[in-house]
Amino acid sequence: MNGARPRSWLPPRRWLSSIEALLSQGFGGRLNPMHYLGALTIYFFWIALVSGIYLFIFYRTNMEGAWASVEALTHNQWWAGGIMRSLHRYASDAAVITLLLHIGRELLRGRHRGPRWFSWVTGVPLIWIVLVFGITGYWMVWDELAQYVAVSSARLMDWLPIFTDPMSRNFVSEESVSPRLFTLIAFIHLVGLPIVVVLAIWFHLLRVRLPRINPPRPLMIGSLLALVVLSLVLPAHSHPPANLDAVPQLLAIDWFYLAIFPLMSVTSEGVVWLLGTALTGLLLVMPWLPPARRAEVARVHLPDCTGCGFCAEDCPYGAIDMVPRSDGRNFELEAKVNADLCVACGICTGSCPSSSLFRARRPLTSGIELPDFGMETLRGMLVDDPVSGRSPILVVGCDHGVALEMLGPEQHGIRLPCVGMLPPSTIDFALRKLEYSGVLISGCDDCHHRLGDCWTEQRIARQRQPDLRRRVPRERIHVRWLKRGQEPMLENTLREFASRLPQDQQEGES
Ligand code: HEM
Ligand code: SF4
Ligand code: SF4
Question: For domain 33-288, is the CATH number 3.40.50.300?
Answer without folding.
Answer: no
